[in-house]
Automatic annotation (TrEMBL):
Enzyme Commission code: 1.1.99.39
Transmembrane segments: none
Domain FAD-binding PCMH-type, first and last residues per copy: 48-281
Organism: Pseudoalteromonas luteoviolacea
Name the UniProt record assigns to this protein: D-2-hydroxyglutarate dehydrogenase
Entry-linked SUPFAM superfamilies: alpha-helical ferredoxin, FAD-binding/transporter-associated domain-like, FAD-linked oxidases, C-terminal domain
Length: 1002
């Protein structure tokens, strides 16, 4: 065994001893060094990957202090740590090969608010949007507005001194930081706040840890004041990382050590609490969206927009706009951002005006639009058109699109993906257009494509060049491009980092600070963390240390990605394209993605976590010589007798096999991630593949076989429905089912007899086009057919009232249950058979309509992934809302309905590009019924998930989060069979499907 391996083993043993000692000393949080947890914490939103030795999830300040203090013992002094919040950093700031202290799981309490003095005190794990949701009823908000605000933590914002939109008016996080509670590497508690310089100098005389820190900081910042003022650019974005300039007020009368902590990326202390300044919400808001002929015009026009006394000016280029148009997010903003039909926009500026006086805003907007009208008329400045939005709800939708831009860039086609490594430059706004012109020329010289978006009012533009870092020749571009961009920003009087921190770009610190000031940074690091235990390599190193600064070139995530088999990359490129943007960590309970993570708060139970685990699982299998087939390979051809593929248990794989299984079991297979995620990570697809191979090694439970084959046995069971229902519904059988197969609250079989014209292909094929136009073919799914025949009856009635004749197609299995449980060979056989039948029927050119969208979408999604193009064919099964929307509803005579009515949609349906909500609202409006569509998360049933006994707590929690309040407060209708079943079992009353509701009004 070589020296490096021996050292690694010894370190592992030290870590294990440390974790055991920490547990014995009363650490109340979670201690986890499992392969899956360390792996999930090895990435953020950057191009880097470092696997930590362990992850600590403290529940209190005492836990944090205990963990750090214990590491001071001689036997543990080689250990090092990095604090972590939302994990949204774009430069690897919180990544470490040491021990992660994750404050996001438990330390999420809002501790105190004082509206008179305008401050709030929070723990470091509080999420930005969570805080603002809390503050809103009080009439306040926490100002810095990030694109990752629904998952970024306050602690993370402090550590990167985050800013974002509107910073020209509202400043950075440090501008709102009133005090900080943090713990040093030895467990010493340090509390910081603004004090008089005289008081700070008095405290610096004390011979304790705080006195030493104050003395060193005062000396560095006071004696080098002139040099600091000359080096720091006069920008809204100052030189982050140990803010030597703003530690003093301009008149030097006050001193604030918190400014040193802000932007320090956890390299000085672990922040656990903060007291924050809060700002009154201004009641009036207007957004002017301006379209330009090209992006250069948008940039060059921005100084004028800033001079219009606006609150903020945001920009996106045509690449981002086009990606947004291809995403479900565009549905919510197209009415506000679409240009006239004959105009193609290649740049967009969004100009916001906030205020307490509506007349004042109207006057500012009027002045701006008058000038814009003049520019459009004279064909100047590249202005093509503009729109005005005053509704706060609509403005939030537009900003949601802008915020999603980061993730959307990751969904670019091909192996080259726009990546963050030179994206955070800041230059004086008046220099921005010229700077970007040179920046673009630089990237063009490397034949790179790129996307751009950012805060032009502050001179910050996020530029993401597209590279495939698994390609060695492209990987070699990282360093020279970074060097040249750093040089370019200095040329234009700017900074290489404006708001996203340094992380693995720390190597450029000496270049921007200068040798003398960088020495002062090292002195400060030394007095805070002499042994370099906190996030070593980031920002700077202590004096006397031989450690290197973190560099742009390593440790790249591509080291892992390039070892994933090409056939897995081909079959699961959506899942493996996860770029770590973390939108699935969205804390909001009314969003569909991701239900399981909302319950457990365990990163492994998120699309990002599962994608990371699946990638590593497939990589390690390949390294052990296991050949994993493509989804469309012959291995999955129906009736083949190829040998089973045995997954490996070598090395870390045995543990990882079971840990991935545990994470996948918690997935509801709702498919929200496959649309709501910016890069369309499809976990249910990867989950089905993994389960198929996992169970080849470890076998299956009886319930898996029962669920997978339910579509096959339901037609038989339905014949004996009158005998079976009393049995299924009995309390005794429920108890037995719960104990024996782990299922409960099973639905009763339908007793409805359906009478329609029998399907006769030959007879229908003889009809002419006009005659066939009078028919509608209903594609049966197992749940509607055998559990909800009354819905089919209502559908037939509605179709007949529309002057058509409904015909029920012969029942063919859909295969959804087989896919969910990972019976992929059987699923492909079902898909092959059903697809062939539907392809034949489609030749009749009669509309085929399905009632449960979650199953209808299987024909277009899951079938397409396992069948070749020729096997799949080109048939189309319409969801019922899609067909109804095309009909002449004036033929329907409906009774008036004036009550409150809300539509609650199935999460699989709502996040699909063929989403039903807008269609149903339109249909009901045409019928004279006002239909509300509140935002809701998952109901907690999601197929069979809610029926499994082990999932009862999670299922109930999800229902209570977002569905219960609507069901209790108003009349609701619901599109999903599973959703209606969930409401019935918790409330005793089953909501109607929209079709049933309409049929009742006829």
């Amino acid at each position: 065994m070589g020296r490096e391996n021996i050292a690694s083993v010894l370190l592992e043993e030290t870590v294990q001893s440390y974790l055991e000692a920490l547990n014995k000393q009363g650490f109340e949080g979670d201690i986890d060094n499992s392969y899956s947890t360390t792996l999930v914490h090895s990435t953020d939103n950057s191009i880097y990957q470092q696997v930590p030795r362990a992850v600590l999830f403290p529940k209190s300040n005492l836990d944090v202090q205990l963990a750090l203090k214990l590491s001071e013992k001689p036997e543990f002094n080689q250990l090092y740590f990095a604090p972590r919040g939302g994990g949204t950093g774009t430069n690897g700031q919180s990544l470490t090969a040491g021990i992660v202290i994750d404050l996001s799981r438990y330390m999420r309490q809002i501790l105190e608010i004082n509206t008179e003095e305008r401050w709030v005190k929070v723990q470091a794990g509080v999420i930005k949007d969570q805080l603002n949701d809390f503050l809103r009823p009080y009439g306040f908000f926490f100002a810095p507005d990030l694109s990752t605000s629904n998952r970024a933590t306050v602690g993370g914002m402090i550590n990167t001194d985050a800013s974002g939109q509107g910073s020209l008016v509202y400043g950075k996080t440090s501008d709102h930081l009133l005090s900080v509670k943090c713990f040093l590497s030895d467990g010493y508690e340090l509390d910081t706040q603004k004090v008089s310089t005289q008081e700070a100098k008095q405290d610096a005389k004390h011979n304790d840890r705080k006195g030493q820190i104050l003395q060193a900081t005062l000396t560095s910042c006071e004696q080098n004041r002139d040099r600091i003022l000359s080096v720091f650019p006069s920008l809204n974005r100052f030189l982050t990382g140990y803010d030597l300039k703003n530690v003093f007020s301009d008149d030097l009368k006050t001193f604030d050590l918190s400014r040193i902590i802000a932007g320090s990326e956890g390299s000085l202390a672990v922040v656990t609490e903060a007291k924050l300044n809060i700002v009154p919400i201004e009641p009036y808001k207007t957004l002017v969206n301006i379209n330009y002929d090209n992006f250069d015009s948008a940039l060059r026009h921005s100084p004028f927009l800033v001079s219009a006394n606006s609150t903020s000016v945001e920009t996106v280029d045509s690449k981002v706009l086009n990606l947004a148009k291809a995403d479900m997010i565009w549905r919510s903003v197209s009415d506000f951002l679409e240009t006239p039909a004959h105009i193609a926009s290649d740049g967009l500026n969004m100009v916001e005006f906030n205020g307490t006086d509506q007349n004042d805003i109207e006057e500012k907007v009027g002045t701006l639009t008058s000038k814009l009208d003049s520019l459009i008329a004279s064909n100047q400045s590249g202005v093509l058109s503009y729109s005005i939005t005053t509704s706060k709800a609509d403005i939030l939708k537009i900003y949601a699109m802008r915020k999603k831009a980061v993730g959307l860039l990751g969904n670019s086609k091909g192996t080259r993906k726009p990546i963050a490594f030179v994206e955070d430059t800041a230059v004086p706004p008046e220099n921005l257009a010229d700077f970007i012109t040179e920046f673009r020329s630089l990237l063009d010289s490397y034949n790179l494509t790129y996307g751009m978006f950012g805060h032009v009012d502050a001179g910050v533009l996020h530029v993401r060049p597209a590279l495939d870092l698994c390609d060695e020749s492209q990987r070699a571009m990282l360093k020279p491009i970074s060097d040249k961009v750093a040089e370019l920003t200095k040329k234009y009087g700017g900074l290489f980092w404006g708001e996203h921190g340094k992380g693995f770009r720390s190597e450029y610190g000496p270049e921007f600070f200068g040798e003398a000031l960088f020495l002062e940074l090292r002195k400060i690091k030394t007095v805070f963390d002499k042994r370099n235990k906190l996030n070593p390599g980031k920002i700077c190193t202590p004096l006397g240390s031989d450690s290197e600064l973190a560099k742009v070139t390593g440790p790249l995530r591509a080291r892992y990605d390039e070892l994933v088999p090409i056939n897995i990359k081909t079959s699961f490129q959506d899942t493996l394209n996860c770029n770590g943007n973390g939108l699935c960590f969205n804390y909001t309970e009314t969003t569909q993605m991701c239900p399981s993570y909302k319950v457990t708060k365990d990163r492994r139970d998120s699309p990002k976590g599962r994608a990371t685990l699946f990638k590593e699982w497939s990589r390690l299998q390949a390294m052990q010589g296991v050949e994993l087939p493509e989804l469309q390979s012959d291995y999955y051809e129906p009736d083949t007798q190829l040998p089973r593929v045995e997954i490996s248990e070598a090395g870390n794989l045995k543990a990882l096999n079971h840990e991935v299984k545990q994470a996948m079991d918690a997935c509801l297979a709702c498919k929200a991630c496959s649309s709501a995620c910016p890069v369309k990570v499809d976990i249910p697809n990867a989950r089905a593949y993994f389960l198929d191979f996992y169970h080849q090694k470890y076998g299956r439970s009886l319930k898996d076989y029962l669920v997978a084959n339910i579509e096959r046995v339901l037609p038989i069971m339905s014949r004996f429905a009158k005998l079976l229902n009393p049995v299924i519904g009995s309390r005794l059988i429920n108890i037995l089912a719960k104990k024996t197969i782990g299922y409960q609250d099973l639905p009763l079989l339908s007793l409805h007899e359906l009478k329609t014209k029998a399907f006769d292909f030959e007879e229908l094929s003889k009809l002419n086009e006009h005659q066939r136009g009078k028919y509608v073919l209903i594609v049966l799914d197992p749940f509607t057919r055998y559990y909800e025949a009354e819905l089919l009856e209502a559908t037939i009635k509605l179709i007949e009232k529309l002057g058509k004749q409904a015909i029920l197609l012969p029942y063919y299995e859909n295969g959804k249950t087989k896919h969910v449980k990972g019976f992929l060979s059987a699923f492909k056989a079902t898909a092959h058979k059903t697809s062939a039948f539907l392809q034949q029927v489609s030749r009749l050119q009669i509309p085929m309509v399905g009632l449960d969208s979650a199953l209808v979408f299987v024909y277009e999604d899951e079938y397409r992934k396992v069948l070749t193009e020729s096997q799949r064919g080109d048939y189309k099964v319409h969801a019922i809302h899609e067909w109804l929307k095309q009909q002449d509803l004036s033929r329907l005579q409906v009774a008036s309905y004036a009550g409150s009515l809300a539509l609650l949609s199935h999460c699989t349906e709502e996040t699909n590009p063929r989403a039903s909500t807008a269609a149903w609202v339109s249909i009901f409006n045409r019928l004279g019924v006002v239909l509300e569509a509140p935002s809701t998360g998952c109901c907690g049933m999601a197929g069979t998930f809610g029926h499994e006994s082990k999932n009862q707590a999670a299922s109930r929690q999800l229902y209570d989060m977002s569905w219960k309040m609507h069901v209790k407060s108003q009349k609701v209708i619901a599109t999903g069979f599973s959703c209606r079943s969930q409401v019935k079992r918790f409330e005793g009353v089953k909501p109607k499907h929209p079709v049933e509701f309409i049929a009742d009004l006829l």
